[in-house]
Fold this sequence. Notes:
The chain folds into two domains: about 180 residues, Rossmann fold; about 120 residues, Rossmann fold (3-Layer(aba) Sandwich).
Amino acid sequence: xxxxxxxxxxxxxxxxxxxxxxxxxxxxxxxxxxxxxxxxxxxxxxxxxxxxxxxxxxxxxxxxxxxxxxxxxxxxxxxxxxxxxxxxxxxxxxxxxxxxxxxxxxxxxxxxxxxxxxxxxxxxxxxxxxxxxxxxxxxxxxxxxxxxxxxxxxxxxxxxxxxxxxxxxxxxxxxxxxxxxxxxxxxxxxxxxxxxxxxxxxxxxxxxxxxxxxxxxxxxxxxxxxxxxxxxxxxxxxxxxxxxxxxxxxxxxxxxxxxxxxxxxxxxxxxxxxxxxxxxxxxxxxxxxxxxxxxxxxxxxxxxxxxxxxxxxxxxxxxxxxxxxxxx
Length: 328
Ligand code: F6P
């Protein structure tokens, strides 16, 4: 029989993502609904090691559903990767009578939870929160939809300058290891080419495609490049290379950076975060642990944390084909 859960700790860890606050709110309110206490842990695993906790009640999370970032702050803790760090965290959790954890974050966050559970048999449920959408076991991570909308809005603005000055713009978007943001915003914003880590299209193919669009009468173009693109050059080198080889183009680079992680969450992210937050609490109260709660085929569903960490969420290559067709 697993121990009855009376107090749940919640934390956000890794890169912040819009909708994390909506998830925290849902977790706190679900705890209150089921008469369980809830404790917020500041700065992820680092706050756990330092005992930086705050009691959260239904009223402490009012007016945050619409806020970007995370009220609990976030960090990437090196100390939690050590046995000593985890021992301190365990001591603080037990001293505060915390019986279980909801971890909002990505791969690194879930790996920490798995190691912690294997050493201390501490129930953890993960909620995927990252703009990158690169987590196995969910079609959508919390924050991804908002980031897509932010990026499309930014590229629409860049398009105004691109077309007014007949320029070729390389727009770098986030996605260290994954091309979800680039691929979907590239299609959504009508990019000429989309460069993603999962698919090395090669420089020749890029030059060829840009020449073709010049020939077809286009006066400006936008190429969306994922941060982790493996074409072998960073976005500035890429732009220089193209400018040297295609002198008919005036080239500019725009790196969107962290503005993609900020802002008020979209309705989709708020609803997703709320559903996953409630489910996470219910799973813990049902005696479950070591699971990630996600959204698969329009339903809230669970995946083993280990699978979520080791599995690979593949991009939809069909979108590249669609992009090729519609950018004619
Ligand atoms: O994991 C989310 C992410 O936004 C990546 O796309 C990006 O490479 C990284 O975070 C940036 O992290 P930091 O804020 O630590 O620079």
